[in-house]
Amino acid sequence: MIIDDSKFPVVFVDFQHSHSVDEAHGHEDGIEAFTRLFERKKPFVMISTGETPEEKHKPSREETKQVNAWRKIHKEDLKYTKATIQVEPSIVKRMGMRLFSNVYEKFWRNPLLFAETKAKAIEKAEQILREVSTGKSEAI
Predict the structure, then answer these.
(1) Residue 52, H or E segment
(2) Which of the listed residues 61, 115, 130, 138 has the most CB atoms within 10 Å of its CB?
(3) How does pLDDT run across 60-78, given as a tens digit for each residue?
């Protein structure tokens, strides 16, 4: 996973890049980068513009155990992630991913939203962050 936080609090995530030559090292780097986001103690929204991790890479048993352990340690920190927005131009794929969104939300404790384009995802992220900063908690 590659995390680009140069536009924080809008954070871009590419789940596919960690699954190249050194999968274990890439996975650990992604977890470390995600942990650093929490150290800011500020809300953020993640935008994924690539394929979902499961589309090209099924996590190994060890990766799954590692993520579960990390998630338990950082359970309280997950509150800083206000939403994850998956960019997917295909309406058919978006509909299919919506079936998965409940599982995602229970596991990661933030809503999984969808946008047709990166521009629409950024717009949606900025709206969510404005609502958080003004204390408005409208349904996302």
Answers:
(1) none
(2) 115
(3) 788 778 888 888 888 899 9
